[in-house]
Amino acid sequence: MVLASTENKIKKDLKICCIGAGYVGGPTMAMIAKQCPDIHVHVVDLNQERINRWNSHDLPVYEPGLDEVVREARGRNLRFSTQVDQAIAESDIVFIAVNTPTKSFGVGAGRAANLEFVEKCARQIAAVSKGHKIIVEKSTLPVRTAEAVKRILLNSTKEATFDVLSNPEFLAEGTAVADLLNPDRILIGGESDEAVETLASVYSRWVSRDRILTTNLWSSELSKLTANAFLAQRVSSINAISALCEATGADVDEVARAIGTDSRIGPKFLKSSVGFGGSCFQKDILNLVYLCEHFGLKEVAHYWEQVVVMNDYQKRRFSERIVRTMFNTVSDKKIAVLGFAFKKDTNDTRESAAIHVCRSLLDERAKLRIYDPRVPEEQIRAELLASFADPMGSVSEKHKQLVASNVTVLPSAYEAANQSHGIAILTEWDEFKTLDRTRLLESMLRPAFVFDGRSVLNREDWRNDGFEVHTIGKS
Ligand code: UDX
Ligand code: ADP
Question: CATH number of 281-471: 3.40.50.720, 3.40.50.2000, 2.30.110.10, 3.40.50.300?
């Protein structure tokens, strides 16, 4: 599709609303409002506490640079509220950025996306809309969801007409502001040239036209799943090699550097780790697997599923290495866990590898002393309790007690490491690279074990100072 490039095509007094003020909706809308002062942007959510925080100094999403973006636009052309109906009714464009977790019950449990929240949004949009509106899918969704949204909208009201577009978000947490400001591409899928052009004209205020790609609806939806599947596949591929490196004496960082200089492979997403996490990778791959199974593509489903299988193996391998190295028992031993977020520079813990490693260590009755610079104690405890939940979401009294008695959350890495038998680094926060080794060593028991699940430490320095260092992908 060829997009008209005339600036004067931009509709005056455009009003946008976004349903869902989470990690995607909040930063994305803040950036649109910052870059387009004449567009009114209203972000709504059912969660009053989340909205209160978006209206405070203490934003619910930690992202470097986000405070400044919100501060510039909030009160000018950016609003956060719980007035969902009013925001929809007033807007020309409605973004849907609600959560789409993997189903935990019923058909497709453990694989398919739970579209309950998206469907509720569509019904709510239909109930309060008049005239014409453009509905934009921002949440990651299974292929053909736009079609379902369109059917719900068209069948639920005679008072309004709709165009439905797919505009997947490619921002990565921790670098969301930079990604939004300077995206590799903006992808818009849709059938109506006019609707596509209206949305493209918003982004074209700061993104050059050649980076705004347009496709049909389904290609756009599938591209998002495929992009995440390819990225996750790279991480699982290098993690698979990390196991071989540990067995053979090769060094996974050296291998990554050697292959990454091949311009066909490229250097990004080759950092071996304790396993990928985050709200997208696993969910999107499972979605892809479900889609392939649905269409009878067994081999394709099996192929992509291995990316998740390898990731689970990597997380398990790391906790087993800790237990094996610490004389085959960690029962009653204090282990300092440094980092709980799924990557640095975010307070998000969804699917964090730390949850799985901590759970395994708790199963072995270790005493965990956890420190993360951005994740609050309640969130850490809630994630660990949830990791013990049965399929109905219940946690046994025994497990509640285990988390209460064996988990302590500390305000610094030094306090976490005090009197500990070992340190496990599970998130690559920059501050862990410059820890005061003498201070740590003085407070730890001997041998002072360090398990570096992110390969952030200089092994030689730590070893020379007297630590016993075990790094992912190094023997
Ligand atoms: C991802 C996609 O990158 C983004 O485009 C999409 O919109 C949402 O999903 P995100 O999950 O926020 O973004 O972070 P990302 O940087 O992709 O990292 C995902 C996980 O992979 C993290 O746990 C990270 O630590 C891990 N990872 C990443 C590695 O272990 N090694 C790498 O080399 C890169
Ligand atoms: P993401 O990472 O995709 O942004 P989040 O879980 O961080 O996901 O955010 C999704 C937000 O959507 C949550 O704050 C949730 O309260 C909100 N939400 C879900 N359904 C609705 C709805 N029908 N109306 C308004 N907000 C909703």
Answer: 3.40.50.720
